[in-house]
Amino acid sequence: MTKPRYAIYFAPEPGSQLEEFGRNWLGRDHTGSAPETRFAVPGVTPSRLTTITEGPRHFGMHCTLKPPFALRETATESGLLATAELVARGLAPIEIPELELDIVGRFIALTPTTSSVALEKLAAVCVRTFEAFRQPLTSEQEKRYQQSRLTVHQEQMLEHWGYPYVMEEFRFHITLTEPLADDRECNEILEALREHAGPILGRAIPLREICVFRETSFEEPMTIIARFPFGRTS
Known about the structure:
Elements: E1 5-10, H1 17-26, H2 46-52, H3 54-59, E2 63-70, H4 77-89, E3 94-96, E4 99-104, E5 107-112, H5 117-129, H6 139-146, H7 152-161, E6 174-175, H8 183-196, E7 205-207, E8 209-215, E9 223-229
Antiparallel strand pairs: 1-2, 1-8, 3-7, 4-5, 5-6, 8-9
């Protein structure tokens, strides 16, 4: 039987414009409920839109703070949640700089227009704190990551933290698509996204909580199981 996987994410706050955009673009929210209708993209069939949002839909609208991991044998879900609550109590709200649409590799993501030391520090805190709960990667899992032509430093991060894009390699992004076929498709999707994402582009987003997600099997999507608000005011 496959062990559940957990992750520590930033996720849009309930009722926010970012959450509404994510639900209508991906076709689901963090609880698994779906909108009555999804955004449409001229020139792209509904089935193709479903295909190119498959990965982001599985994980939900999020930015990764601690990448997905199975619990080591000595760890428990209740212990993970208790630690997440304790960590959140010691943190103060920060702002995600104004968002823009960006092409990263061949997929489209929401990224901040400027870097943020506060975001980088938060991600590093999460990587370090929840490392005690992470089951080490198998050699097969490591090989899958290594197929991405990692740099020497990314290889070191993979070996130490079980994921190559952490610490100095961390970049805040909210993935919106799978890798796209070509420039034409990229341009079609970008044009549609600029219209649909208009209310959230060019605006800073408050980050006032961390979220714990769980995936019970690879066939089931990641869903949110707890939100922990930050306890400090500054």
